[in-house]
Design brief:
Elements lengths: L1 H47 L42 H4 L14 H15 L9 H15 L2 H10 L3 H8 L13 H37 L9 H32 L11 H21 L17 H27 L6 H12 L1 H6 L2 H10 L4 H15 L4 H13 L5 H5 L3
Helix pairs in contact: 3-4, 7-8, 7-9, 8-9
Length: about 425
């Protein structure tokens, strides 16, 4: 029913509009006929009175003035900061037309072509050697190109009184200027090369930092508490063996030379213990450096740089690593939702993330097994484990560590610094 009612209303509106148009059309036709009848009667009366020589006055047709362009003072103005059309000048004014005077009779394509031909002949650089002739010829050609293009001319006429719409489409050089176009591929290649060089140097710097520390620990025979490690002790032992062999060869060579020359070796001044130690360090340092340089990988990512450390190659591998990570954590989340116990792989990954990759690689297999049993992915367990490690590095005995733990539980020790200085 509602649809029928709407249909009836629509039909009534159409019939009313048709009836109104018919009335207007009939009234217009009657008015035209009346005017024609009045004009015919006037003609008959004039002919009868002998005034046939007098003709009714016809309003003169206003002719367009011939183009007079060429003078920039008469070129008007237009909002075109990005030079999409004719720049700051009016395209019509350049060709000698004034949009304020032509009314409803704008210049046709024929008029525009006629004006362009006259002005182009006048200001052609080969014929006119006046200053600025070339620039005017270019402006005239640009105006002709815009006004003879139907789409461009329509857009130009539309933007004449609408600078806000011009700004929305083309912007304004007052607020910003477009930078010159450059090849983005060249910029991207340069960026990747610079970034790859940086990542390569960063990896080398990581390896060199550990290498310098290892050389110092091996040369100066630092204890684990002072920053030494089992690796630095092994390097020192090898360096001492090499140094002993080197000294043995030198002493044999000196004895052979002394026996052949019949001269005895002169004894130098007696050195102090500190001087002997510094001399030994100087002799061991180059040997330790050579031994450390033979180690390509210290573990935990501290290795010598290779081509795989370039950013370009790393970016190629990123999708693979990202996919593996997403799949693993998705599987982990599903297992947690199902409230299943942690498996060995999950325990290892969570423990490694908690203690850090460097610590995980540096410890022995036995210590790793111990870490897995401590559930270090829990914050409280991790804090307690770190405190235990700091006390071990401080050289505290097992009994002393137990005492400190008891005091902490009771609240007697406020912080770790006080605990480590209770001895």
């Amino acid at each position: 029913m509602a649809a029928n009612a709407r249909m009836m209303r629509c039909c009534r509106r159409i019939w009313f509009a048709f009836t109104l148009l018919s009335i207007v059309f009939a009234f217009s036709c009657s008015l035209v006929c009346a005017l024609e009848a009045g004009i015919a009667a006037d003609d008959v009366a004039n002919s009868a009175s002998g005034t046939s020589d007098d003709k009714p006055e016809v309003p003169p047709i206003k002719k367009k003035e011939p183009p007079s362009g060429g003078n920039e003072d008469d070129w008007g103005s237009f909002y075109d900061p990005n030079n999409v059309f004719c720049g700051k000048f009016d395209c019509y004014k350049i060709l000698g037309f004034d949009h304020e005077t032509w009314g409803s009779n704008p210049p046709s394509l024929k008029d525009i072509t006629k004006g362009y031909r006259g002005l182009s002949r006048k200001w052609h650089p080969d014929k006119n050697k006046a200053k600025g002739a070339r620039e005017k010829f270019v402006a005239i050609a640009k105006a002709y190109e815009i006004l003879t293009n139907k789409e461009k001319r329509a857009e130009y006429d539309h933007f004449r009184d609408r600078p806000d719409e011009y700004f929305i489409k083309y912007g304004s050089s007052v607020l910003w200027a477009y930078a010159p176009k450059s090849d983005a591929s060249i910029i991207m290649i340069f960026f990747l090369m610079a970034a790859s060089a940086f990542t390569y140097y960063a990896q080398k710097n990581k390896w060199q930092t550990i290498a310098n520390h290892l050389v110092k620990a091996a040369t100066e025979d630092l204890s684990p508490r002072e920053g030494g490690s089992t690796e630095s002790i092994e390097i020192r032992e090898k360096a001492l063996v090499i140094l002993a062999e080197k000294k043995k060869k030198e002493s044999e060579a000196n004895e052979t030379n002394g026996a052949s020359n019949g001269q005895k070796k002169k004894k130098g001044p007696k050195m102090t213990g500190r001087e002997k130690k510094e001399k030994e360090w100087e002799e061991l340092r180059p040997i330790c450096i050579e031994l450390v340089n033979e180690i390509d990988d210290f573990g935990a990512g501290f290795r010598k740089p290779t081509m795989h450390d370039l950013l370009v190659l790393k970016m190629v591998k990123w999708p693979y690593y990202l996919t593996i990570s997403i799949l693993w954590w998705s599987k982990y989340a599903v297992r947690r939702l199902r409230k299943l116990e942690l498996n060995d792989e999950e325990r290892q990954v969570l423990t490694k993330n908690a203690v850090g990759e460097v610590t995980w690689v540096a410890v022995s297999d036995e210590e790793r097994e111990n870490m897995l049993t401590l559930e270090l992915w829990t914050t409280d367990n991790l804090v307690e484990w770190r405190a235990e490690q700091e006390m071990k590095l401080a050289g505290l005995s097992a009994n002393r560590r137990k005492q400190i733990k008891k005091m902490r539980k009771k609240g007697s020790a406020e912080n770790l610094e006080e605990d480590l200085h209770l001895d």
